[in-house]
Sequence to fold (506 residues):
Amino acid sequence: MTGLDPLRLTARDAKRLLVDGEISSAELAKVYLDQIAAVESKVRAYILVTTDNIAKYSTKVDREMQAMRGPLAGLPIAVKDNMVTEGVTTTAASRILANYQPVYTATAVRQVWEGHVVMLGKTNLDEFAMGSSTENSAFQVTANPWDLSTVPGGSSGGSAAAVAAGEALWALGSDTGGSIRQPASLCGIVGMKPTYGAVSRYGLIAFASSLDQIGPLTRSVYDCALLLQHIVGHDPRDATSVELPEPVALPSAERLDGLRVGVPAEYLAAGIEPGVRARFDETLARIEDLGGTCVEISLPHTEYALPAYYIIAPAEASANLARFDGVRYGYRCADPEDLTDLYERTRGDGFGAEVKRRIMIGTYALSAGYYDAYYGRAQKVRTLVRRDFEAAFAGVDLIASPTSPTVAFRAGSRTDDPLAMYMSDVCTIPANLAGLPAISIPCGLSDGLPVGFQLIGPAFSENRILDAAHALEGAIGFDTAPPFADSRPAEAGGLGATRPAEEGQS
Fold:
């Protein structure tokens, strides 16, 4: 079958084509391989494309399709390269793991593999997931398909860009302070961070263990729920993982009757660009049109969430990254004079600037004489942030905010200003500190670039969030296909294809 548009094809539609016999798994995989061949030199979303495995496994799925009737069988997926994959190089976008081949597979990845997906490859990220632009990778800088001069967000920028550019049907990412939702916002797709513990972290290369969470990046809310169904659940290998109180349901809601949505004034005072604010206000109006109610609320400790995060996360990172010492695995410097020289040169050569910065901040915050003043106080602030949410959810069902205060910014514009870069996550970090589920859906354009709308819910309210997001998505009608050109003609559905202007988009 020809003529499939990878820029608009959803997993739901692709599965229907497979079940109806209109396309084979091998043919579907080739659609994405062709798209990768056409645009990857511009987008640079992948660290590794597993071409041989794609051909081998898609053929196996086709041969055994009768035995592989699951909802994921035959669907191609991309995986962020901080989730270990047995026999497939996993780098965390760091020189220190440039040649690391794991001997086991992350639970979330194994669960989708067991659903007989076809893995397209491993996507680029900020080194060890530390960043908001995917410019901190040791290997390449990923571009945003909506404007190649801008960043795709981070740290899951490779996964988000791959989906947005039609190089993947959907992808797995990880979210520590907004690293799924912020790139989803900047790339005009859907991204969800589940409740902390809902998805096993076993096999996810740790950044900040009390904050990290794996989640889906997709082209639709329905696809997001479908992928989430297959990665949630308790894992005996991860003591922090839990079973959800109710199974993840595929969303079908078209109305929001009776839904109360809180709008925190503190989020709207966080340097929100005028165009982002305009699209946000329009989406609030759509909630009202669909039968919901929007009310102003206060989350009074929001202003302290960002500084608290940038103490807690680096402190946990400094402990987690101590294992990369040149002794057990990964890069090892040549001809060390002694053990101290081995440690210093291995870590000095292997880690990038942002990783070193965060290790140093975290080590300082945990050092004797400073622990209580910094790390201990940050944890108290975290408790206050969590209590703010608990108080708010006594009166509202969900909380809405812009996902990112800005649209995608130009590559290089914030690399010399870490504080400006850190502000990219000001709207997403509080949900991580409180361990709450949150989703970002595209809600329009500002200056020709996507704007994300974030919905946050109480712990384990994934179904409520997905239903609300699905209804809003239908009302907004956002076209997820970016307009940048490739070598194929626009009439063939390539990246140069034009699309009609949409209401509420500027």
Q: What stands out?
A: Residues 485-506 have pLDDT under 50 and may be disordered.
